[in-house]
Amino acid sequence: MKAQEVFLPILTDLVRSIQAATLYPETHQRVQEPLVRLHRSVKNEAKRLGGSLSLGFLGDRIVVDQFPFHASTLGVGRLAGRMAARGIEKVAIGEAVTLPEMKRFVYFVAGVGETDGSRPWKQISFGRIRGDDPEELPALGAGELLPAPHLLAGAKDVLKDVLHSIAVKGPLGNVEEGRDIVAAVMKGLREEEFLIDRMIRLQDRDDYTVAHSLNVCVMVVAQAAGLGLSEATVRDIGLAALLHDIGKELVSAEILNKPGKLDSGEFAKISLHPVLGATHLRKMSLGSDLPVIVCYEHHIRHDRSGYPTPRFPDGPHPASLMTQIADVYDALRTYRPYRASLDRETALGILREGRGTEFEPVFLDRFLRMVC
Ligand SMILES: [Fe+2]
Ligand SMILES: [Fe+2]
Fold this sequence. Notes:
Layout (H helix, E strand, L loop, with lengths): L2 H21 L5 H20 L3 E7 L2 E4 L2 E4 L5 H10 L4 E5 L4 H12 L13 E4 L23 H19 L5 H18 L15 H19 L4 H12 L10 H4 L7 H7 L2 H10 L7 H8 L20 H16 L10 H10 L7 H11 L1
Antiparallel strand pairs: 1-2, 1-4, 2-3, 4-5
The site of one fe (ii) ion (FE2) has 4 residues, from loops.
């Protein structure tokens, strides 16, 4: 078997374990499965290579032993970015590595729990590659480290796959992981008391819809929780918010990422995303009608303008109104190919101007109190 074929499963399990570690506790099956496999294969390879397996993280490349993997390989770019965020350019793992130490490393890289990595390591060493000698491996433990990435940064990686799988596979799409993300959002909001506007800001230019969906989900969960609704209802609303733009997965990327203003034909196509998304979600068993409703209604304004044209006399569902506010706020705060991101005060000013017309006033007031 070629070296790349041996090392790719190791990288894949490393990526999966780290992603899972950002969302689940240590004992969860989604962490355990890839981690146990990773531990076994790392030990085997370290033994085969004379006692230690080395990985290098350089820009968008990962080198295992001496074999390079590029960012285009599944998850490799994201793993390299995550290592860079922890100040890790090189890792060496000894063949006697234990499962607990492997797990500790995975959680450390995931940014969950231990943050500075300075407690002694037995079989794992990592750090920066020093300038003049690329082969030199720093002493055991970590050198200078950047702040831990937020818990939700990992949720973004998972969400990317979830949105894609739901859009492509339809009824078989992985909704369960979407629910897990909402649970992580709820947990994060409960435990961290972070200010809404400081929370994640995952303003990733390539994955706009992914980062945006997660931001909107966080802001809608916070609004819904503030209303004193039951956990189960907040979770349903959160899932609906997370999936509100799923229809964009069905619109061409060329239009979505067009730098510059859309012409009327392109705008007509993108305006179909609520209907496309709702039609798609209706085929799935989601355990609640809310995702279909919110998906369909999130561009209908409080005064019933917007799109699609409402067919019934009742106003949009409260979950849609909350999503609509968070949706506009996040869109204004985020860089787009056709305009810079707006600062917080300017974005809030635009929301205030739409009070009672574009936005339902009671929900808007609550949202402003929450963000200000
Ligand atoms: Fe939308
Ligand atoms: Fe949106």
